[in-house]
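This entry is listed as follows:

___
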Amino acid sequence: MMSILYVTQPDAILSKAAEAFKVALKQEDGGWEKKSVPAQTVEQVVLMGNPQITGDALVY
């Protein structure tokens, strides 16, 4: 089943590494929480607010 990846946190960073999308979410303590989503399972990416996206993720 294909899914939609929503990125809604304003200072999030969406990137692509190997066969996965990586989402870095800034935490209140200034650190980063990183999540990984297999790219082949994502049908659509929705960016809301003002997140950043790398060139690799945009091209994919």
